[in-house]
Amino acid sequence: MIQFADVAQLVEQDFRKVKVGGSIPLIGLIYSKNMAKFREVLRKRNFFLLWLGQIISQLGDRLDQMALIAFIYSRAPGSTMQIAKILSFTIIPVFLVGPIAGVFVDRWDRRRTMYICDLLRAVLVLMIPLFLFHSKTLLPIYLIIFIVFSIGRFFVPAKLSIVPDLVDKKDILLANSLVNTTGMIAAILGFGVSGVLVEWLGAKSGFYLDSLSFLISAGLIFFISKKTVAALNFKKVSKEIVEVIRKSVFQEIKDGIKYFISKKDIRLTAGITFILWSALGAVYVVLIVFVQKTLQSATKDLGLLVMFLGIGLFFGSLVYGRFGQKLSHYKIIFASLFLSGLMLIVFAITLDNFPSFLVAAMLSLALGLLISPIMIASNTIIHNASDSEMRGKVFSSLEIIMHLGFVLFMFISSLLAEIIPPVAILVAVGCVFSLLGIINLIYHPKLNV
Length: 449
Known about the structure:
- The protein is globular.
- It has helices at about 5-15, 25-40, 45-75, 80-95, 100-105, 110-130, 140-165, 170-200, 205-220, 235-245, 250-260, 265-295, 300-325, 330-355, 355-385, 390-415, 420-445.
- The protein is mostly helical.
- Mean pLDDT is about 75; it is low at about 1-25 and about 230-235.
- It folds into 2 domains: about 45-245, Growth Hormone, Chain: A; about 250-449, Up-down Bundle (Growth Hormone, Chain: A), CATH 1.20.1250.20.
- The relative contact order is 0.13.
- Helix 3 runs parallel beside helix 8 (about 170-200), helix 4 (about 80-95) runs antiparallel to helix 12 and helix 5 packs across helix 7.
């Protein structure tokens, strides 16, 4: 998941330190304040190798997603259920592998973990166009996708953990901000580029390019100096392994659930998060088919619309990070739910009656602007309401809640889309969003958290 809150937090820090003039653009301030520091961090060879590899990998991931969508489009055009099935195998690893991946990553050589993960993913993705593309059954492809994304659950914590080993302590925050910001930009632009490339070159080429991106990323990580990566303390690791055996992952999850129940703000925010991701799951697959049918394009227009949505999310994060400090987080969430629900209704009805890409792009941008404050405000409430030693468990539990809502309602909406027009489902979800937002604004007027 792209963490737009990290970017907003960076922008907030910049504006606290820099006096804002009336005519200086927001992006100009960010550029002038941080560009010199960014260049200094990127001069560090090992960090540069990691950073460059992740930009390439992000572009490859978008190619993979578009290739999967194009592949399903070629097999079963207009089938929401087939898209839901294959996407579910990208999400299931979150539940099965995610809770234990971090435990093992902390005990392995992170550099080696990362390049082995990338090499394995390169080989596995390559198998799809070479051997499985024309297979009569989709089961082998489902298995490959599941394994690839399971491996990714080990790669991500290793990537996040290795950054302090590659830069000076004083540069850790800046390095993390640089990785998150440029990774987000690469992901946003990658959707547009990959959508065009896959439609132009075909789904097979998308898989080939994705495999190549994993291979390049593995090579760049391999050349990170071994000396910079912190050596394992085997005595400490042995004690930690004993502790992990004594207190299982399931016990950790149980502790997180108990903590959830004991904190009112966390319970409420978790509920909001579940609703948001359930709605995203409900519209995700339906929206893919809806755009394909209305704009008559398998991936090109879809990828570009997601890119515009991402741009809206990015700039919405910047604006909310700058001006949202004095506003109630809950009121912002409910207002965003109300407005984004209305925008989804406008998007669906407008595109259904006037299938124009330009209009759809502008509405996608506006939708991104309106949605972005929801997750940022939710994360801020969690940070303020949870104890430091429990935040890891809380956010891990939130990730499970998010993906559970997403998968559950993705399948429900996919089944409904077989008998109900996609535009009706999109309008219905928009109405639910707006009703939830306005009801909570009316009945919780004193929420000032």
